Amino acid sequence: MRGRLARSSLFFMAAIVLVSLFSGFAVATEATQFGEYSADDFTYESRCRQCHAIIYADWEGTMHFNAYLDPFYLEEVKVASDDTDGLIDEFCSRCHTPIGVVSGEIPPIDGSEMSDISKLGVQCDFCHVVSGSDGTGNAPFTVTPGDTKWGPFDDSKSAYHESEYLELYTQSEYCGMCHQVIHPVNGLVIDDTYSSWKESQYGEDNIVCQDCHMTEGITEFEANPGRAGSGAPKRDHISSHDIVGGNAFIPVMFGAENIADMAVERLQKATTMEVTTPEIASAGDKVTIKATITNSGAGHNIPTGVSEIRQVWLEVNVTDATGNVIYSAGTLDIYGNIDGAKLIYNNILGDSEGNATDSFWLADRVLEDNRIGPKETVTEEHTFTLPGNVVYPLTVQTNLNYRSAPQYTIDHLFGEEMYEVPVINMNQVSSTIYDPATPPEERTESTPGFSIFAASMAFVLIMHIFYRK
């Protein structure tokens, strides 16, 4: 496998060209290449925050801030580099440490040649010296370091630097440069965040990434009035630079609990769920629990990103009045593995031999795609036979859960008991099944819907345990 990947490295540029054609850009600029600049050509964020303190505070601690320092990324990319004889070193680094790539500091993949500014991930000066793009996917950005900074306003003035308007900053294609990833050898789409948006109703209505991820709203545009910098004019909307997704795992490692909290809130508003259960059931009856899950708030698939390791699943627990478990599915065993889930909503990739793999760099096919598309509704049914001697009423607890990676993946990379991957409750519905002999007037209504307080408190407890570990 390694030899085949190494011999095929010339396909990398071909993949870039194909992605550029896919983007639909009318005018493209040549992508900046490896080693074209020096790290000294870029400005440290400490200079930027002198005038842009609020925007800097938004960005600090985010996944863009930690794009390179993310310990999960650092461990994964070492494995990927070894598996591919270094073929993916520049490929992965181009989004995680773009300054490191355009300044020729990486490879080596271990970062031993990197300057401090290259380790700042997707930082201020890099983003705002993007002067064009050669399309979407695999980071075909054009950067022009220097005194001019580009952005979304056509009337910006600064005492420190020149300012230029670039329409790209107002389009999803800006985000799509990195949030669309195509295998550099075989063309397999690994991350389709951009294309799944482009093909959705959101794309048709031109509701762009920035409308959800750079506003005060969570799943729709909400204006954020203010100033882009000290001395700048007050505007009806200033883009928020926290740009949070669904990762509540990594930010806590860096003390950014506020970013983790925002990720949880975003996950909790991404879906709606309805659960139907019979109101009454007798011993021997076949009981069916039907859950419908709708991707009502995300403009892309759920989950997205490296969705072969993301996990969304339904947990169902039925207990009687004494706490005895009548039925369960989707619970975690003592090792953190998901036990008995009907389906895990993610992408299953396959290698050249058709075996499932979580290593996207070894994948050349999609074996299954169980993600939930924008505005899509999926249905899941759980059926069991009600045993005798149960104590009524029965409680049905249905949770839609999410975690950034399987526990076994983290254990494999870092060792067991190093990190516990938090499980976020995206949605929750409770209902009750009664004894047929119970008079209707004594049956209280079920409580469908999501309990923000209960889920938030559960997450706080998980984060407390995780932080202590």
UniProtKB/TrEMBL annotation:
Domain Cytochrome c-552/4: 48-128
InterPro entries with a match to the protein in the record: Cyt_c-552/4, Multihaem_cyt_sf
Domain of life of the native organism: Archaea
Keywords: Membrane, Transmembrane, Transmembrane helix
UniProt key word Transmembrane helix: yes
A Pfam family this chain is assigned to: Cytochrome_C554
TM regions (residue ranges): 449-467
Protein name: Multiheme c-type cytochrome
Organism in which the protein naturally occurs: Methanolobus mangrovi
Taxonomic placement: Archaea, Methanobacteriati, Methanobacteriota, Stenosarchaea group, Methanomicrobia
